[in-house]
Design goal:
Helix content is 52%, strand content 7%. The protein has 953 residues and is α/β, with parallel strands linked by helices. Among the domains are: 300 residues, Amino acid/polyamine transporter I; 142 residues, Rossmann fold, CATH 3.40.50.620; 173 residues, Rossmann fold, CATH 3.40.50. Helix 30 links the parallel strand 11 and strand 12.
Length: 953
């Protein structure tokens, strides 16, 4: 529904506009609703929107004609010849036609606002690309305006300027010439453009219409002159004389207009590159193409007026295509006529020759002035609209905030002034051909970005990309991108590389500094498209143990007390899937809406705040156990599904809120009498429920959330996960875990103790089984190795503890385990640990249970029943002797771990046995785990159910 809003708004706005301009039926009184007078006055202030012809066709035609049609047609044919000249136009128009197709597609996919190409790209590709390309397009229009102003100055000086040698050939040559005088004339012309643009777009539209009429008349007379004017000799400009540092024959001072002759055509057929008499530089295909391409860069003139168009989606495609076809025909006709009737010397040494062969000389001069002035105004007003759109989108913060100011009629006068100031700076370059390459590369970069935007929308297969203009495919977009890129580097590789680098710098700047926008990010659509494709290719039937990686579902009751665990588990995921799961108790049938939808923002903000790479999956269930079952069943897609469940330990430790204000970070569990802390302690970013404490043991702890989960259900969750072939990890004492305490750079400096990670790969609840090579033990080793491979933990040392009894070969067991580690490519130090005393406590308890005295008065049936119960207890427990473990044994093993591992490690990895088959023993099982891990510090109890490691290559 939200995605349709802009289009719906556009249609509603169109219908409202139609209703506003539709006259009432004759004789019918018009009802005046409240506020009509205010609305009428507002409408009077708002200018009427422009049509296709006035808003798109005329600005595009004049921008594309501009300097090239009157001042550089002879330059192109004279330097490149007719064949290469037409080839240049074909290449240029091929590139812009591919871009025009993309512009038409994007512009017909929804409502357009002010900003033209910038608006299209930013709303299609997102703020990063949109903002960076917007700045490049703004600079392209600024430089383009300066280029056309300099072209006009060149024409004025050629007509009215006093030659540098002081020889005045005409009474009209009254203006002094030179660099500073040319700059003065350019400044005056730029001020004239500024005044017109400050008045508003409609004055500009009226002015351009008059200019359009003049240009069409002049073009008509030029075509007539080729047929009506006879052969004549034309005096070349005096600046065409050879410069002192040039050797060779002197250039002629006159040239011929021969009329239509085959000899003239053959002489102009092929390329003959020479020195440009205005700049003194040698011309090449690339430099000539750069100048010529400026005659094609006006295709965005109509798009830049998108904010002033009556119906942009309708006007831009039709007006732009019409202007492109018309200009292409005119350019090629002029090339052929010029090549058939003018000497090569005339074309190379006099850029204003069309004036001398016209039936009325001043007419061409007027056409040059009008077309270049119109193109300059078009670029200036286009630059101001782009800058205004950039400022309004706040992509650059307060830097562009002055450009937001507008007049009562909506004209962004501040943007016009800023654009004019930058144009004035560019005018110091002095020569048209000097900045032609820069302008061309900027425009080519923008055209390539438009093609990229259309290509991305097409490849993303977004359902809402439904342009009414369908004469494009992804092939046309790719051809446009390749054509723009190739021509950029052919024109000037240095300028092209610098402009791309500058654009990428702007992209990074916007990415890190600008606020999140609501326009949509094409990158997300493309990523979705590719991820779906690759997920379908990720076949679970092709899984191999060599490429196993942890894919973890971490159950979090309240993130406030689980920050340490969340960040630690992020370290052991090894580029695997990491999902934060949460269960909220409730029944959707009794609720008005899903309560989880409003919580996702807080969870995702937590992921950003902790700088972890994790997904969030929340579920609603009638119990925590059922909720975890749901998440284990549904989390992930295809081959990316959790294979390991991580739970916080169920104990009575006090939780600590790690998301409150830093000054309050030492506060422990909040008192139950004041269940909600002051609101100002909670950052507004997170809206998780506060921690609570009561006399109930399950009210505090890493996993418990009040009375939501009991010990019986907690162990049942562990058993469920193992039945579903999921590895299980229980994390204890991670409530206040802070990895920076262990992994800060100063910790590894000389004089500081090393960081250790301890692994006890034996089932400590089964002293009769000391195997180190079962699936669970290997899983412990794998997770410890994965942690050690993480960059932050790379300097930590793995310690592997080998529990041995009297009579066992310590040396043999150590060598055997060392060989296994070598085959597994795990670097760890093995420490043999004798535990005869602890094992003796275990077997002592077994003997007591076996020799359990029975009452002599008991009947034979009672004795038999007692034996059956004991046998049932023995059979239903797994491991069989786990229920017979004494507290003394567990505490002794706990002390063994504490005293043996010195200095204390950062984290311990212990073997987690399976829960007993008899659910009545769940509480005993949980108590045994609690005693075993008492006061051990951050500890992971791990049980693996699937092979995860191999010695094969």
């Amino acid at each position: 529904m939200t995605e349709r809003t802009p289009l719906l708004h556009y249609r509603l706005a169109a219908s409202v506009n139609e209703a506003e301009v539709r006259p009432p039926p004759a004789g019918q009184a018009v009802e005046q609703p409240p506020g009509t007078s205010r609305q009428r006055s507002a409408q009077q202030r708002q200018p009427q929107k422009l049509s296709v012809f006035f808003g798109v066709v005329i600005p595009t035609l004049l921008s594309m004609f501009s300097v090239v049609v009157f001042l550089r047609i002879g330059f192109v044919v004279g330097q490149a010849g007719l064949c290469q000249g037409i080839a240049m136009f074909l290449v240029a128009y091929f590139i812009i036609c591919m871009t025009v197709l993309s512009v038409c597609a994007i512009s017909t996919n929804g409502a357009l606002d002010a900003g033209g190409a910038y608006y299209m790209i930013s709303r299609a590709l997102g703020p990063e690309f949109g903002g960076s390309i917007g700045i490049m397009f703004f600079l392209a229009n600024v430089c383009g305006c300066a280029l056309f102003v300099l072209g006009l100055v060149e024409a004025v000086v050629a007509t009215f300027g006093i030659p540098e040698d002081g020889v005045v050939l005409s009474a009209s040559q009254v203006l002094p010439s030179g660099y500073w005088y040319s700059l003065l004339y350019a400044t005056a012309i730029a001020l004239l453009c500024l005044l017109v643009c400050l008045v508003g777009a409609h004055i500009y539209a009226k002015a351009t219409f008059l200019i359009f009429l003049v240009v069409m008349v002049v073009l008509g007379t030029i075509f007539i002159s080729f047929f009506a004017v006879g052969p004549r000799t034309i005096t070349l400009p005096s600046s065409s004389s050879p410069t002192p540092n040039l050797t060779g024959p002197a250039f002629p001072t006159t040239a011929n207009f021969t009329g239509f002759k085959l000899e003239t055509l053959l002489g102009n057929l092929w390329a003959e590159y020479t020195v440009d008499y205005t700049t003194g530089t040698m011309m090449t295909f690339a430099t000539v193409f750069a100048v010529m391409f400026n005659g094609c860069t006006g295709i965005m003139a109509g798009s830049n007026m998108s904010g002033e168009l009556k119906n942009p989606s309708y006007s831009i495609p039709r007006g732009t295509i019409t202007a492109v076809i018309f200009t292409f025909i005119i350019y090629n006709l002029l090339c052929v006529l010029v090549a058939c009737s003018c000497d090569r010397v005339l074309l190379q040494r006099d850029y204003s020759f069309l004036r001398d062969i016209n039936i009325w000389h001043p007419l061409v001069t007027i056409g040059v002035y009008c077309s270049t002035l119109s193109a300059a105004m078009s670029n200036l007003i286009g630059a101001s609209r782009i800058l205004y759109a950039l400022a309004r989108d706040d992509l650059f913060g307060k830097v562009l905030s002055p450009a937001k100011k507008t007049s009562h009629s909506g004209n962004p006068w501040a943007s016009v002034l800023i654009s004019w100031f930058l144009v004035q700076l560019v005018l110091f370059s002095g020569k048209l051909n000097t900045i032609a390459s820069i302008v061309t590369i900027f425009f080519l970069l923008v055209y390539a970005a438009v093609d990229v935007a259309c290509l991305a929308l097409e490849w993303a297969s977004a359902p809402n990309f439904r342009p009414t203009f369908r004469y494009f495919t992804w092939h046309t977009c790719v051809l446009g991108i390749v054509g723009c890129a190739v021509m950029m580097f052919l024109i000037n590789a240095i300028y092209a590389s610098a402009s791309i680098a500058f654009m990428l710098l702007l992209l990074l700047l916007i990415h890190y500094l600008s606020p999140t926008s609501s326009w949509g990010y094409i990158s997300q659509a493309l990523i979705f498209h590719q991820v779906r494709k690759y997920l379908l290719m990720l076949d679970v039937r092709k899984d191999h143990v060599k490429f196993w990686r942890p894919q973890i579902l971490l159950m979090v009751s309240n993130p406030r007390s689980s920050v340490g665990l969340i960040t630690f588990i992020n370290d052991i995921k090894k580029s695997g899937l990491y999902v934060l799961g949460h269960v909220q108790l409730g029944d959707l049938n009794t609720l008005p809406s899903d309560p989880l939808q409003s919580q996702y923002d807080s969870w995702l903000s937590l992921v950003d705040h902790l700088n972890i790479k994790a997904f969030v999956n929340l579920t609603l269930a009638d119990s925590v156990r059922h909720g975890i079952q749901h998440l284990l069943f549904i989390s992930g897609l295809g081959g990316m599904r959790p294979n390991t469940l991580v739970l916080g330990f169920y104990d009575d430790s006090f939780p600590r809120d790690m998301l409150i204000d830093p000054s309050m970070s030492t506060i422990q569990c909040l008192d139950h009498s004041d269940p909600s802390p002051p609101f100002d302690q909670n950052p507004p970013l997170f809206h998780f429920s506060p921690l609570r404490v009561s006399s109930e043991r399950q009210d505090c702890g890493e996993f418990g959330d009040g009375k939501a989960l009991g010990p019986q259900e907690y162990v049942a969750v562990i058993a469920d996960a193992m039945k579903m072939l999921k590895n299980v990890v229980l994390a204890r004492y991670f409530n206040g875990f802070d990895r920076s305490e262990f992994l800060s750079p100063s910790f590894f400096s000389p004089g500081k103790r090393a960081v250790y990670v301890d692994v006890w790969p034996v089932n400590l609840l089964r002293p009769d089984s000391s195997s180190y090579v079962d699936t669970c033990s290997l899983f412990l080793l794998q997770l410890a190795c994965v942690l050690n491979m993480v960059r932050a933990w790379r300097k930590a040392k793995l310690r592997l503890f080998l529990c041995v009894e009297e009579g066992q070969s310590v040396r043999g067991s150590e060598e055997k385990l060392g060989q296994l580690l070598k085959e597994l490519r795990i670097k760890a130090q093995v420490y043999p640990v004798p535990w005869d005393q602890q094992v003796a406590l275990h077997w002592q308890r077994q003997g007591e249970r076996v020799q359990k005295p029975q009452s002599p008065d008991a009947s034979a049936e009672e004795k038999e029943r007692a034996e059956e119960e004991e046998e049932e207890e023995y059979v239903n427990s797994f491991p069989s002797n786990a229920t017979r473990l004494s507290d003394n044994y567990l505490l002794a093993v706990n002390q063994l771990i504490l005293t043996t591992a010195q200095p204390a490690p950062a984290v311990r990895f212990l073997y987690l046995p399976r829960p007993p088959a008899d659910t009545r023993r769940y509480a005993t099982y949980l108590r045994q785990l609690e005693l075993l891990t008492q006061d051990l510090g951050p500890t992971l109890l791990i049980h693996g159910v699937t092979p995860v490691i191999t010695t094969d290559l």
